[in-house]
């Protein structure tokens, strides 16, 4: 009997940004309706360095970063600035292949894949898990900016050993985004809208301060 190939997977992340919390402290019973559940995770400090080369990656919708010395890639899969949809890469091989394909640069991880740092900052992150699955994140950067996100993440399985198709990814991310929209409408008392992303805010801060 022929062996069945293991399904290939990809990690999808959908997020919607908010400017800040609309309440002094986020608690399960801080507004109406109450969260079904709310778990506060320990705060943590994150060191991020974002890399690019002549804007080739950012203009193609990719963010390549080194977070606490671990390489990550977030590949934009639609949405808008406030409503982002990403496929995430974490393996060095996949990140290197993506960079090589979109820039023509073939450099090793030890040489930062031939990329240059474009933004470097430290973030203090507070995180809550609401209703058992929605991740609420509030980030405060060392240059004075604050931004939050409501996120859902899912591992999507391909069929019969194949990669998930682009159609599968888009359909799943649409459902994830609709669920986040409903969540934020239900708990509108918790969020102040109108956010500026952290990398955009970093460049604005550098420009204003002549850094």
TrEMBL record:
Q: Which InterPro entries match?
A: CYTH-like_dom_sf (IPR033469), THTPA (IPR039582), ThTPase_euk (IPR012177)
Name any one GO molecular function: magnesium ion binding
Judging by the UniProt lineage, the source's domain of life is Eukaryota
Q: Which GO terms describe its biological process?
A: thiamine diphosphate metabolic process; thiamine metabolic process
**Protein name as it appears in the record:** Uncharacterized protein
Species of origin reads Trichoderma parareesei
């Amino acid at each position: 009997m022929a062996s069945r190939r293991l399904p290939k997977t990809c990690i999808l992340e959908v997020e919607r940004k908010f400017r800040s919390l609309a309440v002094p402290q986020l608690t399960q019973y801080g507004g109406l309706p109450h969260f079904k559940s709310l778990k506060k995770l320990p705060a943590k400090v994150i060191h991020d360095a974002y890399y690019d080369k002549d804007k080739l990656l950012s203009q193609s919708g990719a963010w390549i970063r080194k977070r606490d010395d671990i390489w990550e890639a977030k590949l934009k899969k639609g949405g808008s600035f406030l409503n982002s949809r990403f496929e995430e890469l974490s393996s060095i091989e996949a990140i290197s292949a993506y960079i090589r394909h979109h820039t023509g640069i073939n450099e090793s991880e030890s040489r930062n894949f031939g990329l240059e740092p474009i933004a470097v900052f430290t973030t203090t992150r507070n995180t809550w898990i609401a209703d058992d699955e929605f991740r609420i994140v509030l980030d405060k950067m060392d240059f004075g900016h604050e931004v939050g996100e409501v996120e859902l993440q899912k591992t999507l399985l391909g069929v019969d050993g194949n990669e998930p198709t682009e159609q599968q990814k888009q359909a799943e991310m649409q459902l994830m985004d609709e669920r986040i929209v409903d969540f934020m409408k239900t708990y509108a008392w918790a969020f102040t809208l109108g956010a500026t992303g952290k990398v955009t805010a970093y460049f604005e801060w550098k420009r204003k301060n002549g850094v």
